Amino acid sequence: MADNSGSATGLLAVIGGGVIGLTCALAAADAGWRVRVFDAGAEHRAAWVAAGMLGSLGEGHPGEDELLALSTESVRRWPQLLSRLGGHSVLAAADSLFVAASSADAEHLDTLADFVWARRPRAQDDLRRVGPTEIRRLESAVSSRLHSGYLAIGEGAVDNRRLLAALREALLAAGGEVIERRISDLAELADADDILVAAGLGTSALVPEVSLHAAKGEILRLRRTTWSVPPPTHVVRARMHGRAVYLVPRQDGVVVGATQYEPFDETAFAPDVGGVTDLLSDAVDLMPGLRTYELAEAGAGMRPCSVDGLPIIRRIDERVLVATGHGRNGILLAPYTAHVVLDVLRGAAGRRTVGATNASDAINQGVSR
C-alpha cells in the first residue's frame, strides 16, 4: 500500500477504463502514483451511452438530500477538472434550461426547485424562474407552447465521448498506462500496491461484498443536416406531459435522453422500441425542428446502481478499494469520486466506512458509503 505521509510511492492498478476509473487514475497520477489502468472495453459502458449533464440543481429530487449534497460538491470541482483537460474541447454547454409543457408539469418543476431552495438557500442566485417569452429568447427553436421553466446558471454538460478520450490522453501524458485487458481475479494484480476496482457492474464479480444492480438507460444521438435548425446552446431539460426528456448539444447535433428501466431483462442490451418512440416523440414536441435531423444512433447502456442510490467509495482491505454504484450520475460525480479515492489512498480517511450518515459528513470525512 502507498504510504500515508501524503507522498505516493506505489503502483496503483485501476480496474475499469470508464469515466470513474480514468478520472481517479488521472488524479492519482497527478499526485505522484504510478498508475496502470486495465480496460476491458467499451461494450455496454454507461459513460459511452450518456449525455454528460453536470447538474446538481437538476438532481434535486425530494428524498435525495444526500445525492444533492454530493452532486453540489462535485459540480464545484468540475471547473478544475475541465481546466486540467483543456475544457474547451470537452464542454458542450454552460447552463441548463428547465421547461414545462403544462401547468401540471410546471408544478412538478416548482416542487423540485422548492426542494433545492430549502436545502440550498443561496441556490436562488443560480436557479431562477423564467416565463415563455424568456424561454424563447434563450432557445428560439423550442416549442412556443411551453408553459414556464427555470434557468440553472453554471450547470451545463460535457461531451461524454470527448471526455473519455481527453481523460485517457491526459493520463498517458502524465505517465500512466492503459492496458486493454479484462481482469477476472484480483490475484492477477499481485505486483500492485493498491487496487482500485471501478469496473461498474463488473465490480461485484471481483469484490462480492459490493452489492449492485443494473438499470438500463437509452439515449438517441441526432445529427444535424444542411437544412436543420442549429442545436440548442443550453442543456434543455423538459417535463412533457408527465415524462422527462432532455436535449444536450453536440458539435454535430443533439443527444436526446433518457429512459431508465429498473428492473429489466438483463439479457436485453438493445434499445427498446417503446423507449425510442417516446424519446423521439417528446424531443420533437419540445423542439419541432428536430424533425429534419438524422437519427444517427440509438444506444443502451447499463448503469451500476447501489441499494440506496449513492456511490460506494471505500476500502475493502489494505490493498483494495472500490468506486462504483454511481447510477445515472457517473459523469457528474467523477471529480468528487476522484477526490475521495485520493484521500483514501493517502490514508487521510483511514479505513473508516461511512454508512448510514448524511452526505455532508461523507464529504467532510472523505468517504462515501
UniProtKB/TrEMBL annotation:
Enzyme Commission designation: 1.4.3.19
Domain FAD dependent oxidoreductase: start-end pairs: 13-341
GO terms, biological process: thiamine biosynthetic process
Pathway recorded for this protein: Cofactor biosynthesis; thiamine diphosphate biosynthesis
Keywords: Oxidoreductase, Thiamine biosynthesis
Pfam families in UniProt: DAO
Annotated catalysed reactions: glycine + O2 + H2O = glyoxylate + H2O2 + NH4(+)
Molecular function GO terms recorded: flavin adenine dinucleotide binding; glycine oxidase activity
A single GO cellular-component term on record: cytoplasm
InterPro entries with a match to the protein in the record: FAD-dep_OxRdtase, FAD/NAD-bd_sf, Gly_oxidase_ThiO
Coiled-coil blocks: none
Gene: thiO
Enzyme class: oxidoreductase
Protein name in UniProt: glycine oxidase
